[in-house]
Amino acid sequence: MKEKSYEEFVGKFKPKKTTDDCYTPPGIYAVVRDWACKEYGIDPDKIVRPFYPGGDYEHYDYQEGAVVLDNPPFSILAKITAFYLERGIPFFLFAPSLTCFSARTCEERTNHLICDANIVYENGAVVRTSFVTSYGGDVVAQTAPELTRLINEEAKRQLRETVKELPKYSYPDHVVTSALMQKYARYGIDFKVPRGECVRIGRLDAQRPYKKEIFGYGLLLSDRLAAEKAAAERAAREKAAAERANTTVWTLSDREKQIAKELSQAEKERN
């Protein structure tokens, strides 16, 4: 116990990991590499990874034909892409999804592949990740549904290997669990279970033949409370739907509409 306390004390002084310390799980990297090679005809033997711990991408020995496919420090991503563009070194880089368009020159010489993929990196950080690349011709931004699917499938596979997935059960109105009551609390729903109207249970009779049980136990409710619980469930569903629908819609100004019109006109003239 003393040893553990000392380790916890020392741990407080260790440097905290940031998104610049997000080392990519090998399985995720392999999925991204294989997709990029197939999509853009990249030779896997030409791929280099200069962003290893302690590495210096500016002084890395880039051989002729080298392609950078790596996960760089996100905080200097714009500087890194500018470095490669100036030297004509092709690249395919991991990037944070939400700020993918932040670089001032994002629409000039780079393509942004937007994914809906949360990657759990080896330092434990969970980052919604997309990609920025020199490949793609005149395309500035595009969705990458196939890459999204492949990354998410690999992420789920890795999660299954490291975390025991709890089964998902649906219980009748006469049963309430702490997890269900957490949901009611989240949506501002009052629900009380008085003594005399509940019995603590570990499993339902229907679960016995399957040797299943209620995780964390539950409460078997009276008919009156079962009706109240059913009403609480309906209210929670309604509030969840309202929460999803509560989206602010931004519209274009006249100035921005004029820019869009000019862009369309320029496209017609090119064709």
What share of the residues lie within helices?
A: 25-40%
Number of helices, counting only DSSP H or I runs of 4 residues or more? 8
Mean pLDDT: 86
Question: How large is the share of residues in beta strands?
Answer: 5-15%
Number of strands: 10
Instruction: Provide the low-confidence segments as ranges.
Output: 12-21
Number of self-contained structural domains: 2
Description:
By secondary structure, the protein is α/β, with parallel strands linked by helices. It has two domains: about 10-160, no CATH class; about 175-240, no CATH class. It is built from eight helices and ten strands. The protein has helices spanning about 1-10, 25-40, 75-85, 105-110, 145-160, 180-185, 225-245, 255-270, and strands spanning about 45-50, 65-70, 90-95, 110-115, 120, 125-135, 140-145, 175, 200, 220. Strands 1, 2, 3, 4, 5, 6 and 7 form a seven-stranded mixed β-sheet that branches. Helix 2 runs antiparallel to helix 5 (about 145-160). The model is unreliable at about 10-20 (pLDDT under 50).
Provide a short characterization of the protein structure.
With 271 residues, the protein is of the alpha/beta class.
Q: What are the main properties of this structure?
A:
271 residues; elongated; single chain; 2 domains; alpha/beta; 10 strands; seven-stranded mixed beta sheet; 39% helix
Helix-strand layout with pairing:
Blueprint (H helix, E strand, L loop, with lengths): L1 H10 L14 H15 L6 E2 L18 E4 L6 H11 L3 E6 L9 H4 L1 E4 L3 E3 L5 E8 L7 E3 L1 H18 L12 E2 L1 H9 L11 E4 L16 E4 L1 H23 L8 H17 L1
Parallel strand pairs: 1-2, 2-3, 4-7
Antiparallel strand pairs: 3-6, 4-6, 5-6, 8-10, 9-10
